[in-house]
Amino acid sequence: MLRQAAPEVFQISLMPRNSINCYIIEGVLVDSGIRSSYTAVKKILRNIPVYKHILTHAHADHQGCSDQICAEFSIPLLCHPNEVFRTETGLVTTDYPAPQHWIAKLQQKYWAGQGHKVEQTVVENDMIGNFRVIETPGHSPGHISLFREHDGVLIIGDVATNMNLITTAVGLKCPPNIFTTDQQRNIQSLQKLAQLNPSVICFGHGPVLHNTNRKFEKFVAECSAHNES
Questions:
Q1: What pLDDT shows up at residue 226?
Q2: CA distances from 206 to 19, 24, 75, 151, 168 (A)
Q3: Closest C-alpha to 90, from 62, 71, 69
Q4: Which of 17, 62, 150, 214 is deepest in the core (most CB within 10 A)?
Q5: For residue 195, pLDDT beyond 60
Q6: Are the C-beta atoms of residues 199 and 213 closer than 8 Å to each other?
């Protein structure tokens, strides 16, 4: 369940085969899984203390137990300004292309947590410890990624996944259209991240990728070419 991905970077795998992940980076909890992830996350945070909690975006599989965790440990919650409404209300599917789809309704009912007050918003180039905030909208309007310059660690959220969400087979994918506000903007965000040449990429869904052969940049180039064709 708990793996060290890089110095002061821990992956918490909340579902089998890394299908839902959150992270602890330099004492900051990034995302929180689904509502029922609370017990598992709480147990880990009793051994690895955190002093704040930040969301890459406010979808149900990322904010699920944020309210409970922030209340339990008395820590502030941060997100991008364009995620504040969903974060504070818990109405997490309002940016989906089809919020009335049965899968969206199931996520809202069974995965989403209650809303929680946002103590601070973050925007492009703000710092979370040694991690720089990078605005990467598309999957959601206020999606952010976090990048540590000195060793190339990238927390990518759902700008890309490293698994097929249906079969759980490992491999780089764009996020599903059904959950993505604007796939074109998401590809632009992927292009922005590829320019960073990250060394270690930590996904919301799928295993951590050690990008030694520039697999990520090749994937982004293929996505961009496919989108233009």
A1: 80
A2: 5, 16, 27, 21, 8
A3: 62
A4: 62
A5: yes
A6: no
Amino acid present at 74 = S
> Phi and psi at residue 91, in whole multiples of 5°?
-85, 80
* Domain at 10, CATH number: 3.60.15.10
Contact indicator for 162, 21 with CB cutoff of 8 Å: no
Task: Specify the residue for token string 């999606």.
Answer: 143
Two tokens, residue 105 = 């309704």
Give the CA radius of gyration of the chain: 16
Which is nearest to 59 in space by CA: 166, 181, 154, 192?
A: 181
pLDDT in tens, 52-110: 999 999 999 999 999 999 999 999 999 999 999 999 999 999 999 999 999 999 999 99
pTM, whole model, 2 decimals?
0.97
Return the amino acid letter for 13: S
Count up the domains in the chain and report the number.
Answer: 1
The CA-CA-CA angle for residues 19, 24, 26, to 5°, reads: 155
Q: What is the reported pLDDT for 33?
A: 98
pLDDT tens for residues 10-23? 999 999 889 999 99
201: its two tokens: 């990429």
The residue range of the domain holding 30 is: 2-228
Q: Scan for tokens 């030694």, then name that residue.
A: 212
Q: Which two tokens stand for residue 203?
A: 């996904």
**d(C-alpha 3, C-alpha 191), whole Å:** 28
Token reading at 54: 């930040």
Residue 36 has pLDDT above 80, yes or no: yes
